[in-house]
Amino acid sequence: MKILAVCGMGIGTSVILKSNAERAAQDLGLDADVEVADIGTARGAAATADVVLTSSELASELGDVGVPVVVIDNFVDGAEIRDKLGKAVDH
Q1: I need a surface site. Which of 30, 40, 67, 81 has the fewest CB within 10 A?
Q2: pLDDT in tens, 9-45
Q3: Phi/psi at 3 (nearest 5 deg)?
Q4: Pick the CATH number of 2-88 from 3.40.50.150, 3.40.50.12780, 3.40.50.2300, 3.90.870.10
């Protein structure tokens, strides 16, 4: 499974989200590869992803990318990420 962590610039907050998403995927027993992207490259990168994690502001900018876009309110809240990721992948 490929998870895409998206933030505005693809450097700061997406790295935090990537780390917490990897931990959440492991907790859920998912074999997942988490990659980061900035909003400019996220549309193309989403084409090969199974799920996208991002903020509400960026989710509206992304629009429909053909895979579930999960809005994360707090990128450092591991429980929120685990719960929302689990629901998105029916796990």
Answers
A1: 40
A2: 756 787 899 999 999 999 999 999 999 998 888 989 9
A3: -115, 135
A4: 3.40.50.2300
Helix 12-27 / helix 78-88 crossing angle, nearest 10 deg:
70
Rounded to an integer, what distance in angstroms lies between the CA atom of residue 80 and that of residue 8? 20
Copy the structure tokens of residue 88.
């998105």
31: buried, middle or exposed (CB in 10 Å: 19+, 13-18, 0-12)? exposed
Per-residue pLDDT band for 53 (boundaries 50, 70, 90) equals very high
pLDDT tier, 70 (very low <50, low <70, confident <90, very high otherwise): very high
| Token pair belonging to 73 | 């309110």
Residues in CB range of 9: below 8 A, 6 or more apart? 38
